[in-house]
Specification:
With 191 residues, the chain is an alpha/beta fold. 37% of the residues lie in helices and 23% in strands. The chain has a 7-stranded mixed sheet, sandwiched between helices. β4, α4 and β5 form a beta-alpha-beta unit. It is globular. The relative contact order is 0.16. The protein binds 5-O-phosphono-beta-D-ribofuranosylamine.
């Protein structure tokens, strides 16, 4: 089986670029069919221009409501034969209708060891709690934010002088590796 990926981003897009490159370099048997951003100024889309992967910007303000906005995203993914959606720094919550259409076919990456530190700024939450280990988690997406079945996790050690920024960088390095590991894992399941 070949994974036909659709990736949703909002900002920086480093996980997305890493996935696109891994596919292009045949490190995984997957193809990124389309990258969609809900932010026209996302740095990720700019970086993607050099890589020939199809992209689209879908802005919520151009639609009557969130359902219509998500219907457009659904349509684009279907038109491009996507069979797995990867959320990679997508800063919006997907609604029930969309989730039902793509049940079991959406995964997300979160920069903490779930179920700890759900929601916004998990790296700051980890530093403030003074935990000594954090990391990242890739999970299936369900109706509750950062709650779905965990697929895999990576751990990082938090040093005594760790800052939110240094922890973000440390975790991001692990995120890039973990996303590829998980895609390989999913491919093995459907082999
Ligand atoms: C990552 O830390 C990811 O875990 C979180 O948002 C950030 C996105 O980073 N969901 P990038 O856009 O992939 O660089």
């Amino acid at each position: 089986m070949v994974l036909n990926l659709g990736i949703l981003i909002s900002q920086n897009g480093s996980n997305m670029i890493n996935i696109v490159k891994a596919c292009n370099e045949k490190k995984i048997n997957a193809d990124v069919k389309i990258v969609i951003s809900n932010n026209p100024n996302s740095k990720g889309l700019k970086k993607l221009r050099a890589l020939k992967t199809k992209s689209a910007t879908v802005l919520i303000k151009d639609f009557e409501n969130k359902k219509a906005y998500e219907n457009k995203i659904d349509e684009l993914f279907k038109q491009n034969n996507v069979n797995l959606i990867c959320l990679a720094g997508y800063m919006k919550i997907l609604e029930k209708d969309f989730l039902e259409k793509w049940s079991g076919k959406i995964i997300n990456i979160h920069p903490s060891l779930l179920p700890s530190f759900k929601g916004l700024e998990p790296q700051r939450q980890a530093i403030e709690k003074k935990v000594k280990f954090s990391g990242c988690t890739i999970h299936y997406v369900n109706e509750i934010v950062d709650d779905g079945e965990i697929i895999d996790q990576s751990i990082v050690r938090i040093s005594d002088d760790e800052t939110v920024d240094s922890l973000k960088k440390k975790i991001l390095i692990e995120e890039h590796k973990l996303y590829i590991t998980v895609l390989k894992k999913i491919l093995n399941v459907y082999k």
